[in-house]
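Lab meeting, action items carried over

1. Structure of the two-component assembly. Owner: GW. Status: complete.
Input record:
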Amino acid sequence: MSLLKPFKLIGIAHRSGVVTVRYPFQPPLVTPEFRGRIRIDASKCIGCGACVNACPSNALTLVDDGERRALNYFIGRCIYCGRCADVCPVGAITISREFELATDNIGDLNSRVIHYKATCSCCGEETTATERMISYVVSRVPVTETYVHMGSRCRKRRFIEGLMMGRGMIYGESER
Amino acid sequence: MVDFEPSKQDLEEVRAQLTEKLGHIARSVEYVPGAGILVEVPVKRIREAVKIIHNDLDAYLRTVAGVDERPVKGVFSAYYVFGLDSKHVNIIVVAYMDSDKPSIPSVVDIAPSADWYELEMYDLLGIRVEGRRLYRFILPEDWPEGLYPLRKDVAYNIRPEPSLRSREAISGPRIPVGPYHPALHEPEYFELYVEGERVVDVRYNGFHVHRGIEKLGESRFTYQQVPFLAERICGICGFVHSVCYTQAVENAARIDVPERALYIRSLVLEVERLHSHLLWIGVACHLLGYDAGFMHAWRIREKTMVLAELLTGSRKTYGINLVGGVRKDINRDKIGKVLDTVKWVEDEFKKLVEVITSVPQVVKRATGTGILPKHDARAYSVVGPVARASGLNRDVRRDYPYAAYKEVSFKVPVYSEGDNLARLLVRVDEVLESIEIIRQLLDQLPQGPIMAEELEIPEGRIGVSSVEAPRGEDIHFIITGKGRPYRWRVRAPTYQNIPALKVMLKDAPLADAPLTIASIDPCFSCTDRVVVVDARTRKRRIISLRKLSKINCIGCLI
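Predicted assembly:
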């Protein structure tokens, strides 16, 4: 009897039939939960870089160039963890189910959002924040409006000037 | 709920025992929650301490971590982590070394499993281990002498000029095809020395693709990024590493992880074990020339892969772990799907196992081959199914419970034969146990959040965490730092099991070697090449493991 046992496999194979799909002629077996490449909604992105800080593999990078700032997404480095979508404060990043990303043109692997940096309302230089970041902050915390349009240097200067103008006591001014 | 704590009584007992036996050498004995009992000894007396703990207390060596603590404490240090299964507690022996010329006596004659750890300490940290032969072990041959990458004053991204000093000069063109070929699977290979058909000695040559993951985690990544890096240590049991890392940090920082998150971790770990064991059973069948069994094992496995994707969002490298909890919740719909799948897997698997264990070529070739006797298993501190097949009743899930394992009941299969069949049967039993565990976990799944609210990680804390991977015990040792781990020591299960292959392969016929090597379930592609050296003629032939599995006469080779 036990000699015949191995032949039971024929029955098993017959019952299970063909289990592979004729991909790519048939749709791939991908569950609804599958994490593929990300999509960045340029109309929502504020260029804050929270996703860049969270990205473990440096697929998302910020590139500064004078008045512009680009958020670059390079699929070649992406590990499809979706941490960027978790941390995005404005929900600009969505995880898609796309995974057929092979290409013979490296340009297809890069996509970017270009932001313009805000200029300081005081000295006119570029600040470290993008325009969208500032409007985001203003919409959230309206009280900060006076200082928020300034660059960090002008903000510091203003603060010290404010102190010297009599808010609090001055011990004396050192000579230059 | 923080990780499992040993009972007060056990702790006091071990502490009293340690103070009694080590009182004359130990500088301090204290319990560090989340790590174990920390014993500081002078570096000169480390051998005595290890002897007492390893031999008298019957603890086994789990890992050794060398640390460059010069920026913090002005010393080098070595942490020897021992596990005391019966008391569910770790004993960590620490010795501080001089910062200029760090050296430490070797303990390899007391605990043979310390061999690799000592070589690694020498190679990566420049700690001289006295009283043994030291040689380049992990770093490539052309790495400059005196540059120790794990030291804190060495940047993580240096690319030193290769120094060809240690290489023999070879004239004429050279084509490097062989065990280091980049187009091959992971390059790790064994040299089997044979006399006729009999294996007389084994040499292992590995670490060709050492990626410096520990250094990366210590210097470029942040606490919440490392889980994704840790997951890439292994392509089959990656989740084990990310759980182990996050637990080590949580232990060190005493972070309360919500219960639901712990259950989800356990659930995914068991799904991972299912797919890993089914993979292994398939590969074992393949190596024995029973490809039908291989196909059907993988047919069943495929369902667990789809299940994993449904639960986590990815077939492998699930990416759902963070320090403090998990990222993806499960709902009623998913629970139903999990139960359906495991039911299907259970039925199909039982039918398949019945067939596999009746196939003569499988049973006969696995019985009595690759025997690892119990005392050798203990000396080499082997872990996981390899230990359990050699009569060592050792399972981290039960001995050092983590995640939700203390809430479920399960059997730990132990076989005493120590041969390849025993290792196969251990895994078969574990698949069925895993299915039971999954059912229990889903039955008891608590409600609540899946992520801890407070995540504060103080500096300078020690954390140790272990996870029962499909291949055995995985252990991570962490010293917390600023924004990222100060020291992150990973010890994967195969690291502990490979040295024991020497025992299993010695004096065995060559034809059994492929199965025996595979039987420890090394991350399999790592061992896809074998060199056969005829001890009499010194002739070498390099063949792939697959080919070796197909031949049964050494005459065809040499």
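2. GW to write a short summary for the group page. Key points so far: The CA atoms of residues 205 and 436 of chain B lie 39 Å apart. The interface with chain A takes residues 221-222, 224-226, 228-229, 292-293, 296, 299, 302, 306, 309-314, 317, 319, 327-328, 348, 351-352, 354-355, 358-360 of chain B (CB under 8 Å).
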